[in-house]
Specification:
Elements (H helix, E strand, L loop, with lengths): L15 H4 L35 H34 L6 E3 L29 E14 L3 E8 L2 E8 L7 H8 L6 E9 L13 E11 L9 H4 L3 H9 L9 H6 L1 H4 L3 H23 L3 E2 L5 E2 L11 E4 L2 E5 L4 H9 L4 E9 L12 E10 L5 H21 L1 H10 L12 E4 H10 L12 H15 L3 E5 L22 E6 L2 E8 L4 H10 L8 H6 L7 E7 H8 L21
Parallel strand pairs: 1-6, 4-6, 7-11, 13-14
Antiparallel strand pairs: 2-3, 2-5, 3-4, 5-6, 8-10, 9-10, 11-12, 12-17, 14-15, 15-16, 16-17
Length: 575
C-alpha cells in the first residue's frame, strides 16, 4: 500500500477553527493556543463623553463582560482539547487538507489514479487511489461515515468505519465535514456488498484508508447539483403528492453553467456532441474529403440579408462570417475536390426562439458534383444514418443519463433516407388542410406539421425535402434547369425541424453576380469570391448543419441552449 503521507508532506492538519468556532473579539496563538484577554473593564462605568453610567447599567455591562470572559475561556479550553485530540490521533497523517506547495507541480511521485468509472468487481480486495468530487456525505453516529465520490458522471460509495490502526473518529469527522463538490483524493480497498447500491453507479464500495482534501468548494453553492439534475417528471410527481421540490430554471442554470454542467444529463449531452463532431469528421475523411479552416473575419456578408455582425477592421468595414460558404467554394475552385470544416458561425438575428443562437458550431461540407445535386444528398444520407447508428450503439450510457432527466423516444429513421420534393411536401400539407404558398418558405409550425404527416405515412422522423423555391434560397444557389422558380437545393429535417440546408452552387460568375445584386449584396465586398469562378470552376454543391441543433433534435431536447456549452443569444454574452 502506498504511503500517502509521503505524497503531501506539507498538508494541513484539520483546522481548529472548524472544530471550535471562536466568539467575536477573540484570537488564538498557533504556538500555544493562548487566548487574548478581554478589554480592561475598570472604566466601563463611564461613557465616551465622560458621563457616569447608572448602577443598573454598569452592573449589566459587568455581567456582559463576565459572560464574554467565560466564553473566551471555554473557547480556549475547547481549542486546547481539540489540539490535544489531533496530536493524540496516531492516524492524523492519513487525512487532512493538502497544502498549496504540494499542488504546484512540485514532483512526480509515480502514483496511479484509477478512474471512478473503472472501479468495479474485478478490483475486489485491491487498494486503489481515486480522485473526484464529494457528491454527498452522511455520518452515522461517530464511528461510521459514508461519502459518494463523483468523477465524469460516475459515482462511487466510500465508507469510513472506525477501526484500530485504520480509521479514527477524527478521520470520520473530517471526511463527513467536507463540503459538497470539493475535490478529494481517497485511497481505499474495494469491497463488494451483498445488496445492490442504489445511490451510486458503481456496484462496489471503497473502504477508505486515507483521504486528503485537494480543493474546497463553498459550503453553500448557488445551485444544488441534485436540484439541477432533477427531471420535470419527478417535480410534477412530487407536486401531486403534496411535496414541492426545487426547480432550477434555465437562466439560473446558464448563469452558473459551471455547476450545471456537472449533472449526469449534461455530462451525457456534451459527450454525445463530441461524438457527433468526431463521426462527421471521420466519415467525411473516409469519403475523400479534406478538412479546411476558413477565415471568420470577412469583407462582406456571406449569406446576404441583415443578420450579420458588422465591425471595423483597421478602418474598413468587415463582418463576422455567417458561414464558411464563400471560402469553402473557393477551396473547390482551388482543386481540393471535397472539403469540410467544423468551426464557429455567427448570426446577428434577433431570434428569441428555442432553436436559434447568435453563435453556433457549423458542420460544413462542399464537393464537386459530376451530374446531379443528388450526389450531395447521397453523402448526407450515408453520413447521418452512420451517425445515428454509431450514437445508438456507442453512447448508450450517455443517452440513458439524458433520458433520466429529459425523457425521450429514440429517433425513427430509415436505412435509405426518404426524399420528397418541395411540391410533394406542399401537396401533403394541402391534403391535410394546411394551405401554404407554393413558392414561399415553410414556417416552424408548418415544418412540424409536415414532420408529423411524414412520420404517419412513411414511419420516419428523418427525411430530405428538396427542390425548394429559388426565392427563399441564398444568392449562390443554382436554379432548376426546367423551372427557374425552383432551385437545386434541399433541407433535411429531424423530428419536424430543419437541421441542414444544402444545394448545388452557382459556378458561373455572370449568373452569380446577377443573383447577388438581386439580393442587395455589394459586389465589391465579394469581388475575390466571384473572381475565383472566372478562372474555371467545376460544378459543385454542399451543405451546412448546426452541431448544437443535431444534438438537440436527436435527443428530443426542447431548447438549443441545453446543447450549447456557453450559449450566445441576443440577450446573453456571459459567462
Amino acid at each position: 500500500m502506498l504511503d500517502l503521507c509521503l505524497w503531501y508532506p506539507n498538508r494541513h492538519k484539520p483546522i481548529m477553527a472548524s472544530i471550535c468556532p471562536f466568539v467575536k473579539g477573540t484570537s488564538i496563538s498557533n504556538a500555544n493556543y493562548t487566548m487574548s484577554q478581554p478589554e480592561n473593564t475598570s472604566n466601563l462605568a463611564e461613557e465616551e463623553g465622560g458621563t457616569t453610567l447608572s448602577k443598573k447599567a454598569a452592573k449589566k455591562e459587568a455581567i456582559k463582560q463576565e459572560k464574554l470572559k467565560r466564553q473566551q475561556e471555554a473557547a480556549a479550553a475547547a481549542a486546547a482539547l481539540a489540539a490535544a485530540s489531533i496530536e493524540a490521533d496516531p492516524l492524523s497523517e492519513n487525512y487532512g487538507e493538502v497544502a498549496l506547495p504540494d499542488l504546484q507541480s512540485k514532483a512526480v511521485s509515480g502514483r496511479k489514479w484509477t478512474e471512478v468509472g473503472l472501479v468495479n468487481e474485478s478490483l475486489k480486495d485491491k487498494t486503489v487511489l481515486v480522485r473526484g468530487r464529494i457528491q454527498t456525505t452522511r455520518p452515522v453516529g461517530k464511528n461510521i461515515g459514508f461519502l459518494v465520490l463523483r468523477e465524469k458522471g460516475f459515482t462511487l460509495q466510500c465508507v469510513l468505519t472506525v477501526a484500530d490502526n485504520l480509521v479514527s473518529r477524527q478521520m470520520v469527522k473530517f471526511a463527513t465535514s467536507l463540503s459538497k463538490e470539493s475535490h478529494v483524493d481517497i485511497e481505499g480497498i474495494v469491497s463488494v456488498p451483498d445488496a445492490p447500491i442504489k445511490g451510486a453507479t458503481q456496484q462496489v464500495e471503497l473502504q477508505v484508508r486515507k483521504i486528503y482534501g485537494i480543493s474546497k468548494a463553498l459550503p453553500t453553492l448557488p445551485i444544488n447539483i441534485d436540484d439541477a439534475a432533477r427531471s420535470e417528471v419527478d417535480i410534477e410527481k412530487a407536486l401531486q403528492g403534496g411535496e414541492q421540490l426545487v426547480r432550477v430554471n434555465q437562466d439560473t442554470r446558464l448563469n452558473f453553467r459551471v455547476l450545471d454542467l456537472r449533472t449526469p444529463a449534461n455530462q451525457g449531452i456534451f459527450r454525445i456532441q463530441c461524438q457527433v463532431e468526431n463521426i462527421f469528421r471521420q466519415f467525411l475523411l473516409s469519403e475523400g474529403f479534406v478538412g479546411i479552416h476558413t477565415p471568420k473575419l470577412i469583407a462582406g456578408s456571406s449569406e446576404g440579408g441583415a443578420s450579420v455582425f458588422r465591425l471595423d477592421y483597421k478602418g474598413r468595414p468587415a463582418c463576422l462570417a455567417q458561414s464558411p460558404q464563400l471560402h469553402k467554394q473557393m477551396a473547390i475552385c482551388g482543386d481540393l475536390g471535397r472539403v469540410f470544416e467544423i468551426g464557429p458561425v455567427f448570426r446577428a438575428e434577433d431570434s428569441f426562439t428555442h432553436r436559434h443562437l447568435c453563435e453556433f458550431t457549423g458542420l460544413d461540407a462542399e464537393m464537386e458534383i459530376k451530374e446531379h445535386y443528388s450526389e450531395v444528398m447521397d453523402v448526407v444520407d450515408r453520413l447521418f444514418v452512420a451517425m445515428f447508428d454509431s450514437l445508438n450503439e456507442n453512447c448508450k450510457k450517455e443517452l440513458e443519463a439524458i433520458g433520466k432527466q429529459y425523457p425521450f423516444e429514440p429517433l425513427k429513421y430509415l436505412r435509405k433516407t426518404l426524399r420528397l420534393t418541395f411540391e410533394e411536401g406542399v401537396q401533403m400539407l394541402k391534403e391535410a388542410g394546411v394551405e401554404v404558398d407554393p413558392l414561399g418558405d415553410l414556417n416552424t409550425e408548418v415544418e412540424r406539421k409536415l414532420g408529423k404527416l411524414v412520420l404517419e405515412k412513411y414511419g420516419t422522423e428523418f427525411y430530405i425535402l428538396h427542390r425548394y423555391p429559388l426565392a427563399v434560397r441564398p444568392f449562390y444557389t443554382m436554379p432548376a434547369y426546367d423551372n427557374p422558380a425552383y432551385s437545386n437545393s434541399f433541407d433535411v429535417f429531424i423530428r419536424g425541424e430543419e437541421i441542414i440546408s444544402g444545394a448545388q452552387r452557382v459556378h458561373v460568375p455572370e449568373l452569380l453576380s446577377t443573383r447577388a445584386e438581386g439580393l442587395g449584396i455589394d459586389l465589391k465586398s465579394i469581388e475575390t469570391y466571384i473572381d475565383a469562378f472566372r478562372y474555371g470552376a467545376p460544378p459543385h454543391g454542399g451543405f451546412g448543419v448546426g452541431l448544437e441543433r443535431v444534438v438537440m433534435l436527436f435527443c428530443a431536447l426542447n431548447n438549443i441552449r441545453k446543447t450549447s456549452l456557453f450559449p450566445r443569444d441576443p440577450q446573453r454574452i456571459t459567462p
